Amino acid sequence: MKKVKICLSGLGNVGRHFVSLLIERRGLLQSKYGLDIELFAVSCSDGGIVSSSPLDLETVYSHSRQQSWTSSFPGQGKDDLEGWQIIEKSQADVLIEATPTDLKSGEPGMTNLKTAIEKGMDIVTLTKGALVKDFSGLMELSKAKGIVIKFSGATAAALPTIDMADFCLAGSTVKSIKGILNGTTNFILTKMTQEGIDYETALKEAQELGIAEPKPDLDVQGWDTAAKIIILSNAIYGAALSMDDIPVSGIDKIDSQMLEKAFSEGKKVKLIGESRLNESNDKHGQGQMHVSVAPTPIEADHVLAAVDGTTKAIHFETDTLGDLTVIGGKSNPRAAAAAALKDLVNITREGR
Asked: With contact defined as beta carbons under 8 Å apart, do 222 and 271 qualify?
């Protein structure tokens, strides 16, 4: 049995679901993968815990929504330490980074990731901000330290995007990527298209169903999709893109006329994150790229046109393997946590 010591940074909805999955899947992780995953440190906005012995997962989960929850661990709770300090003091082998995303500063994820890299910890991150801010810098630091950063949970949660590119498309050149990468915006556009309702009505329904946040700007203005397509482009093409490098348009200004015009032309409008190599690239696939996020009319017979509701999808065009599309994957905190667990399992499979 291989023991894996982890530090969990961020105990919001996704972090709590991650702890819940560790509890639920303990038997499976041990029997199928030979893994005994132990939590040695955890931090959130209310404080954190650094322990010299494995923390009881059930206690962490059940007490984490209470005030002064760290008092459940006498002598171990730390309300005077920053998240990065808890990482630094931990005995963990792997950091699970699940703090809220700030796409402008990359914090607190950036400092947390750099702290873990300096300690030689492998990383599973669900946080987009740091990867958007300085993907290439973080990858260079991790390579120099001989550690691995996995981030599938930051690129559409349960939808296997980067995994598809890294493993299933290995040896080919990805000529273009097109993705419906945000379930909230896809739900709103589906409602507007199928029921003929306006944007505000569709958004309100999405909020009432818990699909859209009370403050949905990151989703509806296209920033969440932009973050995902930037990370994918940097990872797949070796680019160094930031938010300043791509045009971003969301669905918050869309009207029925655009949808009706698309329908009359045999098309459907989807919020598409797109990244493609220009045809002027050399034989090694290096050169200029086009990356954008915008509501886009696509032909009704294109595979992405049939992706409705909260469902997400990604479509790859390659030079040798043809076109491949992955559709599905839940869009909720539990699915994001499951993506992190998958990354953690795969780190151990790769001999880490």
From this structure: yes
Question: Is residue 222 within 8 Å of 170, Cβ to Cβ?
Answer: no
Residue 102 exposed, middle or buried by CB count within 10 Å (0-12, 13-18, 19+): middle
254, 268 Cβ separation under 8 angstroms: no
pLDDT digits (tens, 9 = 90+) for 157-182: 899 999 999 999 999 999 999 999 99
Question: Dihedrals φ, ψ of 206, to 5°?
Answer: -60, -40
Cβ within 8 Å of residue 331, ≥6 positions away: 157, 158, 183, 184, 211, 310, 311, 312
Q: What residue ranges define each of the domains in the chain, with the CATH number in brackets?
A: 2-157+334-349 (3.40.50.720), 162-329 (3.30.360.10)
Which whole-number Å values give the CA distances from 133 to 69, 100, 159, 214, 231, in the listed order? 32, 14, 22, 26, 10
d(CA 287, CA 290): 10
Chain mean position to CA 36: 25
Task: Please state, in angstroms and rounded to a whole number, the distance separating the CA atoms of residues 234 and 271.
Answer: 20
| Mean pLDDT of all residues in 32-52 | 91
For 265-276, b/e burial (b = at least 16 CB within 10 A) is: eebbbbbbbbbb
Which DSSP category does 244 fall into? G
Structure-derived torsion over alpha carbons of residues 73, 76, 81, 85, reported in degrees to the nearest 10: -120
- Beta-carbon contacts of 339 under 8 Å, excluding residues fewer than 6 positions away, are 126, 152, 153, 157, 158
Mean pLDDT is highest, among 74-88, 98-112, 280-294, for 98-112
* Residue (of 214, 234, 238) closest to 226 by Cα position: 234
Strand order in the sheet with 2-9: 77-78, 47-50, 35-44, 2-9, 94-97, 122-125, 149-150
* Cα 137 to Cα 98, 330, 340, distances in angstroms: 20, 31, 22
Number of other CB atoms surrounding residue 84 within 10 Å = 20
d(CA 93, CA 138): 18
Per-residue pLDDT of 284-306, as tens digits, reads 444 578 999 999 999 999 999 99
In sequence order, which residues have a C-beta less than 8 Å from that of residue 226 and are 6 or more positions away? Answer: 243, 246, 248, 273, 293
